[in-house]
Design the sequence.
């Protein structure tokens, strides 16, 4: 599988990591995908590892530590020792001051059951009782004290990234990553300056919801009756409507054409497109609800699209977006 350097650190991440929001038992993650039992989580992690994935993204917010525990329980059951894979987690700023970053790192390490925090991320730039500068400084303290391997952010704008990078630089550190939504159906980073800022600062963009919550696999287009089984919050936030299926169908058809040429699936092509389009700047963290999905997603890290195929998909995705304006 392709690998990418995490920001300016020495860490090599596989271009596909596994998103572990699916391992939440409560909160937003569970309301989006439903809960995942431990044996299923372990099977998903096993399949991802077998496919070559060497890192995992989780967060305190994914069930208040449940996802972190489910992930590391799976790793223990599979005989994976601390340090053999990388783990990224996140601090949720909502109604908290920057002081809680230092105060909660022990809880994160407890939830990770002996695994280190290789990347600690500020989950979102809003909701904290402290300014971003103070939050980033508290994160820098953790890295300087050896409690986390690197510092990242999530959902940050270009200006917020630059601010975070400057605060870290003053401490002799660098901003490793910004985790944002990126997919063929969400290309905001190309327009809002985030992609340019990432390239400029040497920051890795971690693409979340790279399959647009499953829409880009085409399975809902094949069987629209699946929409009725999607949980309400996912249906609303993910835009799972009959109208959205019709609007995006030309893009799904283009994905199918490219997939057929490679003996791949539409979802794999959607992931490979991100890696081709954005090059070394991007890694993707698709989530899996079932083991066979994890196997498919991991294999996308070996799929190479031609520039022509990537450009055709980009054009089709713009045309689809234009039809909504
Ligand atoms: N930083 C943030 O604010 C933020 C926000 C959201 C997510 N994230 C992170 O990003 C990760 C991924 O995002 P996401 O889970 O929202 O979206 P996603 O990766 O675009 O979609 C994942 C879902 O798509 C379906 N799927 C996956 N592989 C498939 C396959 N091969 N065939 C058919 N269906 C497949 C599964 O759902 P079904 O089987 O149920 O259809 C799966 O749960 C999360 O786990 C989390 O770690 C971060």
Sequence:
């Amino acid at each position: 599988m392709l690998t990418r350097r995490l920001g300016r650190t020495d860490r090599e991440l596989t271009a596909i990591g596994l998103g572990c929001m699916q391992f939440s038992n409560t909160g937003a993650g569970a309301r989006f995908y439903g809960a995942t039992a431990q044996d299923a989580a372990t099977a998903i992690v096993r399949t991802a590892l077998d496919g070559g994935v060497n890192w995992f993204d989780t967060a305190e917010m994914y069930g208040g530590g449940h996802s972190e525990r489910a992930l590391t329980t799976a790793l223990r059951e599979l005989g994976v020792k601390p340090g053999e894979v990388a783990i990224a987690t996140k601090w949720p700023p909502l109604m908290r001051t920057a002081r809680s970053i230092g105060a909660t790192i022990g809880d994160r390490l407890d939830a990770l059951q002996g695994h280190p925090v290789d990347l600690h991320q500020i989950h979102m730039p809003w909701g904290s009782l402290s300014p971003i500068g103070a939050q980033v400084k508290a994160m820098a303290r953790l890295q300087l004290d050896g409690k986390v391997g690197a510092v990242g952010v999530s959902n940050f704008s270009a200006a917020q990234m630059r601010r975070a990078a400057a605060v870290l630089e003053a401490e002799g550190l660098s901003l490793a990553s910004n985790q944002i939504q990126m997919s063929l159906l969400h290309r905001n980073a190309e327009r809002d300056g985030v992609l340019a800022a990432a390239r400029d600062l040497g920051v890795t963009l971690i693409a979340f919801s790279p399959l647009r919550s499953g829409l880009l696999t085409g399975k809902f287009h094949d069987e629209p009756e699946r929409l009725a089984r999607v949980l309400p919050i996912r249906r609303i936030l993910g835009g799972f409507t009959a109208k959205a299926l019709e609007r995006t169908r030309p893009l799904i058809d283009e994905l199918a054409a490219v997939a057929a040429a490679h003996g791949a699936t539409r979802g794999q092509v959607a992931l490979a497109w991100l890696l081709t389009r954005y090059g070394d700047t991007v890694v993707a963290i698709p989530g899996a609800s079932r083991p066979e999905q994890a196997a498919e997603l991991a294999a996308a890290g070996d799929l190479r699209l031609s520039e022509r195929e990537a450009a055709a998909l980009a054009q089709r995705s713009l045309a689809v977006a234009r039809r909504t304006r």
